[in-house]
Amino acid sequence: MEMTINSSITSMIPDFKIGVIHYHDIEVGESPQMLKGRLQLFQESIFFDLQEKNVTDISGVREWREVFKKTGKDPNRYRHSAEALYRRVKKQNYLSTINSAIDLNNFFSLQYEVPIGIYDLDQLKGNDIELRIGHSGETYTGLNGRENSLENLIIAADEEGPFGSPFVDSNRAPVGNGTSNAVQIIFMKPSLPAAEGEKLTKSLMDMFIGIHGGEGSYEVVGG
Predict the structure, then answer these.
(1) Diameter of the chain by CA atoms?
(2) Most buried residue among 12, 132, 196, 203 by CB atoms closer than 10 A?
């Protein structure tokens, strides 16, 4: 699928960029003990770090709060997914294991301090994915079980409409144990140089394939 960024985003955030990874023939299942252990230890380390500072002091969290402000979404009411993860960890409400793909996605989001979405490619429609700003009246049912307003929110949409965002993803294309093809979107810090974004995206892809097998291809769009 080709990924494009609509001018409704770049007109407000000229250095907006995303990493995109396509995976094929992967095997998703229970997380290996290595990943469970790393995720647990990393959360414990973050918890102790956050005793001395606020979640909003984290550079990636802070930058993405500014992105939400620029698009007109109140970051105090609509916390991006990376901030939500950090706030859980600060409360010592550590993330429980879901599956290998989601656990690794959460690990990367905490590591890189940015929202990251992963979607079952076979549940998406058409040949193109567009990132744009949500319109008035647009909603979807999220993985949080609620109907979420997409107005003024950065969203990812296929030919059927919105399915993902850096706030909460829809329940239309979640990655599960039956997933064999997926697409991952890394909502990078706007300040990150494109060359660093390339390295980050490739590193993430390599680790994902190391656990799930299959093949991957990546690119950085925008910036």
Answers:
(1) 47
(2) 132
Residue 6 CA from chain centroid, whole number: 18
Long-range Cβ contact pairs of 131-134 (< 8 A, separation 24 or more): 131/3, 131/4, 131/5, 131/6, 131/9, 131/18, 131/155, 131/156, 131/157, 131/185, 132/5, 132/6, 132/8, 132/9, 132/157, 133/6, 133/8, 133/9, 133/71, 134/162, 134/165
In whole angstroms, give the CA distance from residue 79 to residue 68: 9
For residue 156, is pLDDT > 90?
yes
Q: 83: which 2 tokens?
A: 């901030």
Residue with tokens 């402000």: 69
Q: How far apart are CA 1 and CA 117, in angstroms?
A: 15
Query: pLDDT category, 181, cuts 50, 70, 90?
Result: very high
Task: Output the pTM of the full model.
Answer: 0.97
User: Is the pLDDT assigned to residue 193 strictly greater than 90?
Assistant: yes
Is residue 153 within 8 Å of 73, Cβ to Cβ?
Answer: yes
Q: 3-state DSSP call for residue 32? A: coil
Provide the token pair at 113: 């301090």
Residue owning tokens 């993803």:
169
Give the contacts of 112 (CB within 8 A, at least 6 positions apart).
Answer: 60, 186, 188, 200, 204
How is 195-212 classified by DSSP, letter by letter? HHHHHHHHHHHHHHHHHH
Q: What are phi and psi of 66, to 5 degrees?
A: -65, -40
Residue 4: partners with Cβ closer than 8 Å, 6 or more residues away: 128, 129, 130, 131, 221
